[in-house]
Specification:
Two copies of one chain form a homodimer. Chain A has about 210 residues and is of the alpha/beta class. Chain A has two domains: about 150 residues, P-loop containing nucleotide triphosphate hydrolases (Rossmann fold, 3-Layer(aba) Sandwich), CATH 3.40.50.300; about 60 residues, Guanylate Kinase phosphate binding domain (2-Layer Sandwich), CATH 3.30.63.10. Helix content of chain A is about 45%, strand content about 20%. In chain A, β5 and β6 form a beta hairpin. The two termini of chain A are about 25 Å apart.
C-alpha cells in the first residue's frame, strides 16, 4: 500500500469513551500511529510537560503561528488559544505514521475542508440511554451539567453526516480493534492510491506493447 | 452496526487471483458472505449443478427475466447470456449477508449505477511483472494469448478509478484477511448508518428535553 500516513480526526459525544479508545490504540500500535500534540496558551498544570500533553506557548507566539499559517486549525476557549501545529503532523505523516487528531466537530470540519483526504471518525455509545448512564456513572457532574452535555450531544449529532465512519463503542477491546481495522482498510482506498495505480498502468502498457 | 448486507462487486486483472481469494473468504466466513449465482443460457458442463455454479435457463426464460427487470445486470458473450438475478441477491442481503458478485469492469459499473451503495473492490497483483509471471506460470496460454490478456488488463486498468478499493494480492492469506477487514469496516460507514444515527439523534433530543 502507499507509504504516507493518513490524517485521522476522531470526535465523539462526551462520554463516548473516545479518549480511552485512542489511548489503547496508540499503546497497542505505537509504530503505526502518532497522536497529534496541540499548541496552547494556557498554563501547564502540575505534571504536564511541554511537547507531551501540549506545546505550551505564549499568546504572542501563538498569534505568530496563526499569521504564518503554521496551524492546521485553531480555536479560542475561555481566553486561551488551542491549535494543531502543522509541522509535527506533517513530519509524522511523511514517516508513514497515521496521525490521530482528537478534536470536536467544528474543528474537524475545518480540517476536512483544508485537507479533504482527512479521515473523519465519530465515536458514539450504543444509544442515548447508555450515554446518559455513562455521564451519571462518572459521578463528577451534577444533573444540570449532564442535561447540558446531553443537549450539546444532540447539537453535535447534527454534524455526524459529514463524518466518514460512525463507530459504536459497546465493548472497548472490540472498538479499538474496529478503529484499527477501519484505518488500515482506508489505506487501500482507490482515492489514496493514485500513484500506485498509475505506476501499474504504465507497466502494463509497456508489457502489452511487448517491451 | 446495521443489519442489512452489502452488495460487494469484485473485479480484478485476469491472473490477480481474485477467484481464489473469494473462494477462501467464503469458506472461512460461510455465515457472513454469500456468493451471487449467475443465470446463463449456456449448457451445463459435466459436474455443474443448477443453482450451484449457475442457474441454467433457456434463452426464452432469460429474455423473459430481462423483460421483467429480474436481473441486476446482464451481458452476452459468444451467443450466450449471463446475468445476475435480483431475487437471490436481495434475499441474502435481507438476511444480513454480504453478497459477493464476481464480474468484470463493465458489469461492475452498471451495478454501481443501478445501486450506488454497492461496494466495488479491485484486485491486482503487486505489479505488471508479477501479473505476467502468473499468466506464464499457468502454462495454459501461449504467448499471443498472454500478450492479449496483458493488453486487456491495461484497458481494464482505465476503469479502476471508479472502484472504491484497490487491493494488492501479494500473499493469499493476508489478502483474504484484508478483503474481510475492508468489508467489515464498510458497515460502519456513515452513509450506511443513517437509520441508526437518526435513531440516536431522536433519543438524544428527548433526553436533552428531560423526558
Amino acid at each position: 500500500m502507499n507509504k504516507r500516513g493518513i490524517l485521522v480526526v476522531v470526535s465523539g459525544f462526551s462520554g463516548s469513551g473516545k479518549g480511552t479508545i485512542m489511548k489503547q490504540l496508540l499503546e497497542e500500535h505505537a509504530d503505526t500511529y502518532a497522536l497529534s500534540i496541540s499548541a496552547t496558551t494556557r498554563a501547564p498544570r502540575p505534571g504536564e510537560t511541554h511537547g507531551k500533553e501540549y506545546f505550551f506557548v505564549s499568546r504572542e507566539e501563538f498569534e505568530e503561528m496563526i499569521r504564518q499559517g503554521a496551524l492546521i486549525e485553531h480555536a479560542q476557549y475561555v481566553n486561551n488559544y488551542y491549535g494543531t501545529p502543522k509541522d509535527y503532523v506533517y513530519q509524522q505523516l511523511e514517516m508513514g505514521r497515521d496521525v490521530i487528531l482528537e478534536i470536536e466537530i467544528q474543528g474537524a470540519l475545518k480540517v476536512k475542508k483544508a485537507y479533504p483526504e482527512t479521515l473523519l471518525l465519530f465515536v458514539s455509545p450504543p444509544g442515548a440511554e447508555e450515554l446518559k448512564h455513562r455521564l451519571v456513572d462518572r459521578g463528577t457532574e451534577d444533573e444540570a451539567t449532564i442535561a447540558s452535555r446531553l443537549s450539546r450531544a444532540w447539537q453535535e449529532a447534527q454534524g455526524v453526516e459529514n463524518y466518514d465512519y460512525f463507530i459504536i463503542n459497546d465493548n472497548l477491546e472490540e472498538c479499538v480493534q474496529e478503529v484499527h481495522s477501519i484505518i488500515r482498510s482506508e489505506h487501500a482506498r482507490v482515492a489514496r492510491n493514485h500513484v500506485l495505480i498509475e505506476h501499474i498502468r504504465a507497466e502494463l502498457k509497456n508489457f502489452a506493447k511487448g517491451e
